[in-house]
Structures are given as structure tokens and as C-alpha cells.
Amino acid sequence: MGHRDGATLQIDGAACVRPRLLLASCEACQTVCPVGAIDLSGGAPNVDYDSCTDCRACSVICGEEVFTPPKPLPKAQDQAVFIPCSDALGLTELSQLWLDGVRRILVATHHCESCKATSLAQIETTVAEFKHLAQSRDLPEIELAIASVQDLQDWQKARLHGDAPDPSRRAFLRRFVAPAVESDPEPIDPIVSFLGQGQTGDPAKTLYPFSPDINPEKCIGCDDCIRICPHDALTLIKAENGKSLYHCAPERCTGCQLCSDVCDVGAIKVKRMKLRGSDILLTRFQCRACGVESHITDAHSPDDGLCRVCHQTNHHKNLYVVLD
């Protein structure tokens, strides 16, 4: 399918979580698209470029970078910034603005002819969520305000002055000096950087955009969740007492839901704007039938001494010896 004139959206289908699991339930991009241009019936997203308005709402909502990133945000002026399209503003973009020193966002309420989204509800919700994240870390917030006609005029003047050439002699000579070649630094996710700011030592207070939460009463210690997590938001680590445990790192979670989709006992839920999920303590276990060493939660210690595979298949009962 060809691109609509002016549309620059690109898709990296290999980055999408849906092809990794047949039961993957993530539909964020399709749900957020204001014009219904994204189809997920084939697994990975397919875009109807004739309908796409290039608003980049899909880029903002997707934590796997399946879509081309939103257009670069304008530079802040006096800790304030104008956003050309509210659909292109998510928690990651707000985190970058906050790290750049922005504390106020002005939004114009004019309706775009190419977009059906006429409400500020989405950006208001996003800014409110960011406010909760900042408050839980004792950090300054970002204020959302409606831009006045005077605000827009002042912004346009600032842009014109900012684009004016520098007439100084030094600026003229700089044109003949080769710029210094610097190696690109390792990119850091803005939201991960922001979540590491402030007072994060109190786990009973600190919120995260997404947090995997494991129910210890249901978990059977099968490791399926940690194997499928693409960002190590759930890992298997050693506790101080030498035992193993499932460790939750919600600052890495993108909300893809793969862990909950793969869990066949319904022990995991990915919660939004919640505290860090508790670590789950595990006990080492060796199956008396197959001899495989694994671990199990205390709530599901097997009475028959069998691992879950041997318990379900009963292969150990079918073993026999033929004497010739």
C-alpha cells in the first residue's frame, strides 16, 4: 500500500510484540488512532496511508518503537514550549521535555483540518499521569495551559528571531572551520531517566507508568513470563539468603502485556500507574521422575514430588521394562 502524500510514517514490523505470541493482546496503536488507519487483523500493524493523517499518536503510545518516532519537539523558551500537535505527546515526550527544563506546555485549541481529534482529553490525561509520576518522586510538575492569541504571536516572533542569521564576524569565520567530530552517545530512554530522578527510595509511594504484578497464590514458578519479557522488566535473580526470586523492574516495562498473555494460570497483571510489584520468593525443586531441577512457589509445592510437566503428562506411570 503506497504512502499518502505528506505521510512519513514507517513501520518496523519486527519490533512489534504481536508476532512473538499468538495470544498477544496489545492493540494500543489501533485503539489510539483517531482515524482508524491501523489494522491488526494480520498480526503486525498495517497502515492505510490514504487515511493516515501523520499525527504520530501511534508512535507515542507504542513502547516498542514499531513506528517512526514523532517529529522532534520544538526547543523550550523560558521553560515553556508550544506543541504543534497534542496527539504527538506521550509520557516519553513529556519526560524528555522535563529533562530539558520545560515546566509549562501551551496548547492551541484550533482544530486541524486533517484530523478528527477535536478534544484535549488525551493530552490532559497524559499530563495528569505525568503529574502523578512527578509527585510520587517529589519532583516539580509540568503545567498544561491553553495558548492565547498573544501567546501564539509571541511564539511566532520568537521563532523568527531565532531563525535570523548571526551577522557577527565570529559567526562568519565559523563557517570555514570544520565541526568537531564526536561519537554519538548511547541513547538513553527519556522516561527511564526521568523515573530515576527524585526521591525514589520509598516503594510504598513511587508510581510507574506500567508495573507487572505477580500473584504469589497463583504463580507456579514456570519462568514463562521472564523468558518472554523483551525488556527484562521481570527477571530471575538471587536473593540475599541464596534463594531465587522473581524481581520486578517496572521502570523497564512498556506495557506490552506479553507476560500476562503467556501466563496460563492468570498469575500476572500489568497495572498502569501503580507501585512496583512485589518480588516473588522461589524454592529450589528437583522432580523425582525426570530429575530436572527447577523452582516453585511455596503456594504450589507439589505433594507428589513431580514437576508440572510430569504431573500433567503422567509419563512416569507409563515406563516399563521389556525382558526378552
Question: What are the SSEs and their pairings?
Answer:
Elements: H1 28-32, E1 38-39, E2 46-47, H2 57-61, E3 80-82, H3 91-99, E4 104-107, H4 121-135, E5 143-146, H5 149-163, H6 169-174, H7 190-195, E6 208-214, H8 224-228, E7 234-238, E8 244-248, H9 258-262, E9 268-274, E10 280-281, E11 283-286, E12 293-296, H10 308-313
Parallel strand pairs: 3-4, 4-5
Antiparallel strand pairs: 1-2, 6-9, 7-8, 8-10, 11-12
Arithmetic mean pLDDT:
79
Q: Determine the structural class based on helices, strands and strand pairing.
A: alpha+beta
Shape: elongated
Please give the largest β-sheet. Answer: 3 strands, parallel
Q: Measure the end-to-end span.
A: 68 Å
Number of E strands: 12
SSE order, one letter for each helix or strand:
HEEHEHEHEHHHEHEEHEEEEH
Going across the biggest sheet, name each strand in turn: 3-4-5
Helix count equals 10
In the predicted model, the low-confidence regions spanning at least 5 consecutive residues are 1-6
Report Rg.
Answer: 26 Å
User: How many distinct domains?
Assistant: 4
Tell me the helix content: 10-25%
Strand content: 15-25%
